[in-house]
Amino acid sequence: FSVHVMAAVGNDANHADLRGELTTNLEVYSNLNHHICVVQLRAPIIPGHTRLFCDELIQWITDTQFSSILLLSSLDAQFRDDSQINSSPLRYILAQCANGCASIKPPNSIGIRELEHSSDDLMGIATLPRFLIDSSPIPLVVLTCFCVEGDNTNDGMMTAAAASFLLGFADTSSQSIQFTRPPSWRYLEGILHSRDLF
């Protein structure tokens, strides 16, 4: 829970049978066997509160004694330059303290390019990564993907595959991992109307 994130609540996003579990604006999942914790931000940060939220998040990360951070983010594809259009949509940013990080593999080892400096102004709504890069006391890698408007399922799957490799869950970047689309994604384009209407 954070007072710096817009309030949001919805129906169960993770189960097809809609068990009645609420989905909230900020959720934490963990797996002790794999020593991983996932923080999912499902709602926007309140305007003007990004720095406050970042400070709160860094404090929690420090108190919980995480060893490293892999932050997944996105960028608006319509602002790419020609070289970015003709290459992979994945990019990365390293915080200064991330060099030599043992728990996250180097993104350039699988051909992911570092985010070009000309793209700094693209971070726009993704100012959280910038604040975290500046203030993180532990190794931080930002993995971001240029996304177009619409159904971003393939972008999500590609980013998840790259993240799985960087975290050591896949031996190669091309190793096939069976990801499951959350049931809630079937409503990305609205609910289909009954054919009886036509």
Number of helices: 4
Oligomer: single chain
Describe the global form: globular
Mean pLDDT: 82
What's the number of extended β-strand segments?
8
Which H/E pattern describes the elements? EEEEHEHEEHEH
The fraction of residues in strands falls at: 15-25%
Strand order of the largest sheet: 5-8-6-7
Distance N terminus to C terminus?
46 Å
Judged by helices, strands and strand pairing, the structural class is: alpha/beta
Poorly predicted residue ranges: none
- The percent range for helix content is 10-25%
For the biggest sheet, the summary is:
4 strands, mixed
Rounded to an integer, what's the Rg over CA atoms? 18 Å
Please describe the topology of this protein.
Elements: E1 9-10, E2 23-24, E3 26-31, E4 36-41, H1 50-64, E5 69-76, H2 82-85, E6 90-94, E7 113-114, H3 127-135, E8 140-147, H4 153-166
Parallel strand pairs: 5-8, 6-7
Antiparallel strand pairs: 1-2, 3-4, 6-8
Short note summarizing the structure:
The N and C termini lie far apart (46 Å).
Provide structural commentary:
The chain is an alpha/beta fold and about 200 residues long. The protein contains 4 helices and 8 strands; from the N terminus they run E-E-E-E-H-E-H-E-E-H-E-H. Strands 5-8-6-7 form a 4-stranded mixed β-sheet, with helices on both faces. Strands 1-2 form a two-stranded antiparallel sheet. The protein has a two-stranded antiparallel sheet with strand order 3-4. A hairpin with a 4-residue loop joins strand 3 and strand 4. Helix 1 (about 50-65) crosses helix 3.
